[in-house]
Amino acid sequence: MSLFFRCFLGAELLKSNNEGNESLLKSLWHHSDAILCCTLKATPVFTFANQAGLDMLETTLVALQDIALEKIFDDHGRKILCSEFPQIIQQGFACLQSGLCLSSMGRPISYERVVAWKVLNEEENAHCISFMFVNWSFV
């Protein structure tokens, strides 16, 4: 995930250090922005979230897979995501401007922007889409 963020966006997702994969996982887990991954199915569902992502969605890792991507965005957010989705698939990333979304409990959440990027598998096929909700907060 971090590799493709760097590849498509030209920036580092996580602070680099020489402590290995375990340290990278801890950095991802404790990242202050909500980072979420979802499937590329007809109805995308979440498969991973860091601690900030779980807090934002007010859910657990176990319940995360029951949340569809389209359910957290309002109508405006869904329209923007649908219009940007081809760019994410073709160019590998997109940035969505500030907006609102909803937690799994229906609480409104504001965010400064969402950075979305494609994550590839070993065969370089699209595996999932990752989203980073920057500077999110409950409204």
UniProtKB/TrEMBL annotation:
Residue ranges constituting the MEKHLA domain according to the UniProt record: 5-138
Keyword annotations from UniProtKB, A to Z: DNA-binding, Homeobox, Nucleus
Gene Ontology MF annotations: DNA binding; DNA-binding transcription factor activity
Residues making up the signal peptide according to the UniProt record: none
Name of a matching Pfam family: MEKHLA
Name of the protein: Homeobox-leucine zipper protein ATHB-15-like
Organism annotation: Trifolium medium
Biological classification of the source: Eukaryota, Viridiplantae, Streptophyta, Embryophyta, Tracheophyta
